[in-house]
Design a protein that fits this description.
This protein is elongated. 40% of the residues lie in helices and 14% in strands. Helix 5 runs antiparallel to helix 6 (159-169). With 173 residues, the chain is an alpha+beta fold.
Length: 173
């Protein structure tokens, strides 16, 4: 294979030395990446930094439980992160972007990154990474509890609730 000519440069060199729109995108990406490292030092869960404009930090998490924890601690997080060098954070906005698929039926190793239009959903973290949400487990219930659920379901008029109780009752030993 012939040696590349001198006119060919690495993409990183092009991004760093460029000017205009490509350079501004590269700089913004670097700032968001640095901010992501800063945030993950204080928030120990699966989290992404979506944007940072005028002191407003927008975070995306994979579960509502994680979002609630961050919202509950947002004042403390802001003060902790502002003690470190970097841009000053005035407010934190948290959005939930759940992982698609049924985690109870589909093993994590078979899920990949999915795209729908302009949205991409990341592959969930492996078990070695920290995740704020609890691991979902299917639990069996006792025969007595199953019988009680089935009996209760027979009195429920709401069709959806009745079916849900019947499904739960089938988990009995």
């Amino acid at each position: 294979m012939p040696k590349p000519t001198r006119s060919l440069r690495l993409s990183g060199q092009i991004l760093k030395s460029g000017s205009g729109q490509l350079r501004s995108i590269y700089d913004q990406t670097r700032r968001l990446k640095a901010l992501h490292r800063r945030v993950t030092q204080h928030v120990h869960c699966d989290i992404d930094v979506a944007s940072f404009n005028d002191g407003n930090l927008h975070l995306i998490v994979s579960s509502a439980a994680s979002a609630t924890r961050i919202r509950y601690r947002h004042k403390v997080l802001i003060s902790e992160m502002n003690r470190e060098p970097g841009p000053t954070i005035h407010s934190i906005r948290v959005s939930v972007s759940p992982i698609t698929g049924n985690p109870l039926r589909e093993p994590a190793s078979t899920r990949n990154t999915e795209s729908e239009g302009d949205k991409t959903y990341p592959k969930p973290p492996d078990n070695n990474q920290r995740n704020c949400s609890a691991t979902l487990q299917v639990r069996e219930i006792s025969r007595r509890s199953a019988e009680h659920l089935a009996k209760t379901a027979s009195y429920i008029e709401d069709k959806h609730l009745r079916k849900a109780l019947e499904r739960l009752s089938k988990r009995g030993k």
